[in-house]
Amino acid sequence: MLTFEIAKEETLSPKDIKELQEEIRSLARQKNAVILAHYYQRPEVQDIADFVGDSLELSRKASQTDADIILFCGVRFMCETAKILNPTKKVLHPNPESGCPMADMIRPEQVLKLKEQHPDGEVVAYVNTSADVKAVSDVCVTSANAIKVVQKLQSKKIIFIPDQALGNWVKKHVPDKEFVIWQGFCPPHFEFTAKELERLKQQFPDAKVAVHPECHPKVIEMADFVGSTSQIINYATTCDSDRVIVITEVGLKHTLIKKNPNKEYIFPQSMNYCGTVYCCTMKAITLPLVYKTLKEEINEVVLDEEIIAKARRPLERMLELS
């Protein structure tokens, strides 16, 4: 039996990592647990997951599972979403401290105030929001389906929360609607600058550029392709260029190489992650934490039943419309 405790991932040898991965998979089989992981997780965490995906894909998988336990390797709002869609399941989060700065940029009372100010508008909540915020929203969206969902809404006024970058990207593609956009943002994506991208384009003039819509509008303007993580994977691995500059969280590189190792994927790099799209809270989930959480069945996600019922409606509406 392994005796791994919570430790820094860097202290584990390749042999330790392999052994720990095998033990986690064994535990998952014994406990009828499904392991879900976001593309931004550490490579060694992605490799033990039953399914790796973006927010939309993970929402769908969470709603379809027949497992008794959902071990979710992602940030807090993702784990809450899994619980909302599976209220009778035990949902475990390897690191409850792994939140999302963007999700923390708006509170339920602020959403309710927006609804009072714009009674003719529908609140479209990016899935990167807390359960409490979803509970007072009309429909949820992800970066993969936001344009499609907003186009299908009957309301001519859209209150888009909390991401200003994604909100403006949707507004550009749905010009027949009026938008009220909350000024939240994803720090790693939004703070990457057009100047930094220009340097990469000069260094690799033959490369295509794929950008996540959470990025700054000036960065988006320079892209050959803009899309969610799953959409970027499809574009980067199949486009006609042998080199692709990818402006999103660096964890995606692991999947890109596995999907198509014959291309070169260029991510911003820096000694201290400055200028790199790097999510510290995603990377705060380690194999030892996953192992301990599953073994002891700790860090269960618990939500109020009323919040679950109210937050479930906009999520289910999203899944229907997308």
Automatic annotation (TrEMBL):
Q: Where in the cell is it found?
A: Cytoplasm
Task: Tell me what organism the protein belongs to.
Answer: Thermocrinis ruber
* Residues where [4Fe-4S] cluster binds: 100, 186, 279
**InterPro entries, sorted:** NadA, NadA_sf, Quinolinate_synth_type2
List, alphabetically, the Pfam families matched: NadA (PF02445)
> Mind listing the GO biological process terms from this record?
'de novo' NAD+ biosynthetic process from L-aspartate
Q: What does this protein do?
A: Catalyzes the condensation of iminoaspartate with dihydroxyacetone phosphate to form quinolinate.
| Cofactors, names only | [4Fe-4S] cluster
Q: What is this protein called in UniProt?
A: Quinolinate synthase
Q: How is the cofactor bound?
A: Binds 1 [4Fe-4S] cluster per subunit.
**What PANTHER family has UniProt attached to this entry?**
QUINOLINATE SYNTHASE, CHLOROPLASTIC (PTHR30573:SF0), QUINOLINATE SYNTHETASE A (PTHR30573)
The family annotation for this protein states: Belongs to the quinolinate synthase family. Type 2 subfamily.
Q: Which residues bind iminosuccinate?
A: 38, 55, 126-128, 143, 212-214, 229
Pathway recorded for this protein: Cofactor biosynthesis; NAD(+) biosynthesis; quinolinate from iminoaspartate: step 1/1
Which gene is this protein's source? nadA
Signal peptide segment = none
Record-level GO cellular component terms: cytosol
Which keywords does this Swiss-Prot/TrEMBL entry list? Answer: 4Fe-4S, Cytoplasm, Iron, Iron-sulfur, Metal-binding, Pyridine nucleotide biosynthesis, Transferase
